[in-house]
Amino acid sequence: AEYMGVVGIGHRNRSKMNEPLLEPALQYEAELEAILNEVKQGMASLSGLKGSALEQQIAHLKQRIQHGETVFRTAQLESRDLDPTRRKQVQTRTKNMHSTLKQLQVDIQSSTERRDLLGEMTNLRQTDPQPRGTKEVLQAAQQTQEDSLMSVQRSKQIVADTEELGANTMTTLSHQRDQLVKISAELDEIQDEIKRANKLLRTFVRRMATDRIIQCFLLLIVLGVVFIIGYQIYKKSKKH
User: Fold this and answer.
1) pTM of the full predicted structure?
2) pLDDT at residue 35, as a whole number
């Protein structure tokens, strides 16, 4: 399990280095594909594991499938930024991979429950001192089959509930994203208004400065005229 996790991380790192300009939706699609391949390989290795190693591998696969749910929802959301044709292609591919992951989740659950039931039957045979007849064995096998079918039905219901939860989550995220876009547009408008207000304020300040300069010039002219008139009066009075 640790080896497969390292391989998955290395694969994602190589993908990022080879395609640095890949759109977010395509990046999440590639990550979902890597998770799907990892789960398939993990499922194939279950038959060779026993005891705690088997339990650890099953727990790891369940965790990866759960992470795949998050990656799928994010890829669906990010695909809205693509053009209509590519958006439809990405959504179709990710939905197919998501369905495969769900089926693998059902298979893991069914396999786990069958293993538990077979373990219980083995324990009963070991603790039962009297050998049972063919009829009893067939009844036990039929009961095991019925329990397995019921387990599959429960797993399918869990899958359906999870898909509904995912759809509701995507709707909520889409609504929140629209609100963020609207808020961003309103902030841009406010920023434009602030810029226009600053421009008007600077124009008003320049006009005030110009008016003050004109007033200073007028004052100097008036003072000059008063000085000239006073000087002329003084000259005339001196002559007389």
Assistant:
1) 0.45
2) 92
